[in-house]
Design goal:
The structure holds two protein chains of two kinds. Chain A is of the alpha/beta class. Chain A is built from six helices and 14 strands. Chain A is globular, with a radius of gyration of 16 Å. Chain A starts with 5 loop residues before the first strand and ends with a helix. Chain B is an alpha/beta fold. Chain B has helices at residues 32-41, 63-70, 86-94, 105-108, 111-120, 153-163, 184-193, 207-216, 234-241, 272-280; strands spanning 5-13, 16-21, 25-30, 46-51, 77-80, 99-102, 125-133, 138-142, 147-152, 167-172, 198-201, 221-224. The longest helix of chain B is centred in the middle third of the chain and has 11 residues, at 153-163. Classes of the chains: A alpha/beta, B alpha/beta.
């Protein structure tokens, strides 16, 4: 009724307030913003936000002693996790942003800079339409063609069979990845108005039954 | 395809949303949080909450204003006004802003942009540049001193880009509140000077102003101010006039495609038959 007990990971980076607002609007009241490993391990659902530089985010997570609990939550407990923006990028193996930095490696792939041209300056910022793939375990097809808010200069370059959505910015850009209990989106659902709310509803309900 | 952002600006003076004209005339509109709530629901692609309350350097940004407004929107929110330290930016983001807007500090304390970009990422910093026509070129305007800084705009834009700003918000002082349309010469100079995403502000009077701009220049977005006030569903109506363009996001519940608009982009009244039909039409509220 009040939804799964949800923890939005607080490691000092990311717009956690807006995320919580979105969840409350959807009627999910058991939402905690926390950096405490025990709270994380007790949760039914975890959201991993992230903005800015990849390395800064990974370093902040490690400094907060959250890396090992997150691995345990995802790989041993196999409970649902949603990564947003850099939060999603951290789920793959590594990133080439300002050097080579390793991620969690829960999914294959690595993060590269988007191609910049005069018609496609970086960051890729604004609303872009997203195409959801039928291969996704969760059915997001009702969201097809809706616009979501993006603000990034890097993306997962080789998501392989885990890619479940794409958008276009001077070429295809990976918009979402997912496998089993792991789901990640490049856009910001907490900033994507109605489309974002609909996505969060599908994601939370879909992952709860995985 | 990336859509051109149709943004709304909510300019605040002493906690009250105001209309401005040439940066000198200020007319009260009402509660900023109400404007933010309406613009978000009526189709704003992004909202710029800009506090122009003058102060000395010891005053903090108006975090109460930000907090009241941030909870009213599910769309991107940029916040500006007295951000003078990287801690101000960090707090603004934690209170619900997605980006901070740096205006005067970009001239007086450029290191601030570097620090914020390093800490929060370039995408979190918008360099806001007010522009006035000098004798022979466009110059950066200091709104607190109400005069030109003498700095050439092109140079300043390039400096902001080098410092790590993620976007530029550019505003013509002369066109501000004029409803006459954008200063296209200025837009031309700005697009030549910087490769950063550019949001243009100042002068929107009718939808054709926006159409003319985006047909001619590859801008990231336009920012509308006064024109949005006192008009129900303002953004939805403006976007409906641009609906034939595929690069505009139109996803509000209120849709005006079938309605007639005046040249000004205002709605014409419906005839009696149409109004009669509406009495019996059932609108089901979406439950997400």
């Amino acid at each position: 009724m009040n939804g799964p007990s949800t923890t939005i990971i607080d490691y000092g980076i990311g717009n956690v307030t807006s995320l919580r607002n979105s969840l409350l609007r959807l009627g999910y009241h058991r939402v905690t913003i926390s950096g405490d490993p025990q709270t994380l391990l007790r949760s039914d659902f975890v959201i991993l936000p992230g903005v800015g530089a990849y390395q800064a985010c990974m370093t902040a997570i490690r400094s907060a002693d959250l890396a090992q609990p997150l691995n345990e939550y995802v790989l041993s407990l196999k409970r649902p996790i949603l990564g947003i923006c850099v939060g999603m990028q951290m789920m793959v193996e590594d990133s080439r942003e300002f050097g080579l930095h390793s991620g969690f490696g829960w999914l294959e792939g690595s993060v590269h800079q988007l191609k910049q041209t005069s018609n496609h300056p970086l960051p890729h910022v604004g609303w872009n339409d997203v195409l959801w793939m039928p291969s996704s375990a969760i059915d997001f097809s009702s969201l097809n063609g809706m616009n979501f808010y993006f603000d990034h200069s890097y993306a997962i370059a080789n998501p392989s069979q885990n890619q479940i959505a794409s958008t276009d910015y001077g070429g295809p850009v990976c918009a979402a990845v997912g496998r089993e209990n792991v789901l990640g989106v490049q856009f910001h659902p907490e900033k994507s108005q109605t489309a974002g709310l609909r996505f969060l509803r599908h994601a939370i309900e879909g992952l709860a039954s995985c | 395809m990336l859509k051109t952002r149709i943004c709304a600006s909510v300019v605040c003076l002493n906690g009250v949303a105001v209309q401005t004209r040439g940066f000198t005339f200020f007319q009260e509109v009402g509660r900023p949080s109400l404007s933010v709530s309406y613009f978000d629901r009526w189709g704003a692609d992004e909202i710029f909450l800009l506090d122009i309350t003058p102060s000395d350097h010891s005053q903090l940004p108006d975090f109460k204003l930000l907090r009241d407004c941030a909870c009213q929107t599910l769309s991107p929110l940029a916040f500006g006004g007295r951000i003078q330290h990287v801690d101000h930016a960090i707090q603004a983001i934690s209170l619900g802003a997605d980006k901070v807007v740096i205006n005067t500090a970009a001239v007086s304390n450029p290191d601030l942009i570097v620090k914020i970009a390093n800490k929060l990422g370039s995408q979190s910093v918008i360099a806001s540049v007010d522009v006035i026509a000098g004798e022979s070129r466009f110059e950066v305007y200091d709104w607190r001193d109400s005069k030109s800084t003498g700095l050439p705009v092109a140079e300043h834009l390039q400096r902001c880009e080098a410092l790590g700003a993620g976007e530029i918000l550019i505003r013509s002082v002369e066109k501000d509140g004029s409803l006459e349309g954008f200063d296209l010469e200025l837009v031309n100079e700005a697009t030549e000077a910087t490769s950063l995403p550019l949001v243009v502000s100042g002068g929107v009077g009718r939808p054709s102003n926006i159409a003319g701009l985006i047909d001619q220049f590859n801008v990231s977005g336009v920012c509308i101010g006064n024109r949005l006030n006192h008009v129900e569903h303002c953004l939805a109506v403006i976007k409906s006039a641009l609906a034939s363009r595929t690069n505009i996001r139109t996803e509000t519940l209120a849709v005006y495609r079938d309605h007639q608009l005046t040249d000004q982009g205002r709605l014409l009244p419906l005839d009696d038959d149409a109004l009669h039909e509406l009495v019996y039409e059932r609108f089901v509220k979406e439950v997400i």
